[in-house]
Amino acid sequence: MNIDTTRPHPARMYDYYLGGKDHYEVDEQAAAHVLSVFPGIKTCARTNRAFMHRATRWLAGEAGIRQFLDIGTGIPTEPNLHQVAQTVAPDARIVYADNDPIVLAYAQALLHGTPEGRTAYLQADVREPERILKAPELHETLDLSQPLALSFNALFHFVPDEFRPYELVRQFIDALPSGSFLVLSHATPDFAPETWRKVQDIYTQGGIPAQVRSRQEVERFFDGLELIAPGVEEPHRWKPDGEVPDLSSADVSLWVGLARKP
């Protein structure tokens, strides 16, 4: 397994923001640089994580979804998506996919689910939809003739337009049956444009492709789908548990959404 410790990696930087320990000095240095221009990045990461938990609970509970495909998984941080889903529905089945070898190294943490459910992991890149959709690990775990939830949490701001992100999402959606769901969260410059210009520069200078997007641009990912209320929204305002947390929009700087395929 070849882990490049000479350049920062977004999954390891995200682990740093969340207070994890699975990162290297190069990631810590880049993350510290981001913190120096955007102190809210830790709030951003935690709020995104909390949204993932609520969206997963809603899907397993309200929507009755029992299958999840989580692409751009990142380094395991408990509770992971399968733990959240299987707390609601012990028979839920989850496939994780990520392109970072360090995630593969920790994948065993993603595979300890309930006896009734199943989890699997495959190392793959979102820019190769066919490889993911045809992977044996996927078909041994999920039934693509039945509805599932497709999850892209904090992933597509690392997929610039040159990689045709909207077409990538459409390829995945087209392969899923009616009644499936898309969950997506995405960094935005809408609330602090100058700050996010600097953050984006730090990532690109570190060799990490990055492109933050406006609300309108994020809404495009859901074209042709039925958005679940409240639609594309700031994560802490999306079906909060109780009162809306008192957070600065500029610190959160994310748009999120969950939508159903008709």
What CATH architecture would you give? 3-Layer(aba) Sandwich
Classified in CATH, the superfamily is Vaccinia Virus protein VP39
Report the structural category. Answer: alpha/beta
Helix content: 25-40%
Uncertain segments: none
What portion of the residues fall into strands of 2 or more residues? 5-15%
Distance between the termini: 41 Å
Overall shape: it is globular
Largest sheet: 7 strands, mixed
Radius of gyration: 17 Å
Average the pLDDT over all residues and give the rounded result.
94
What is the CATH fold-level name? Answer: Rossmann fold
> Number of helical segments?
11
Overview of the molecule:
- With 262 residues, the protein is of the alpha/beta class.
- It has a single domain, classed as Rossmann fold (3-Layer(aba) Sandwich).
- It is 37% helix and 15% strand.
- It is built from eleven helices and seven strands.
- Strands 3-2-1-4-5-7-6 form a seven-stranded mixed sheet.
- Strand 4, helix 8 (165-174) and strand 5 (181-187) form a beta-alpha-beta unit.
- Helix 1 packs across helix 2, helix 2 (25-37) packs antiparallel against helix 9 (193-205) and helix 3 (41-61) runs parallel beside helix 4.
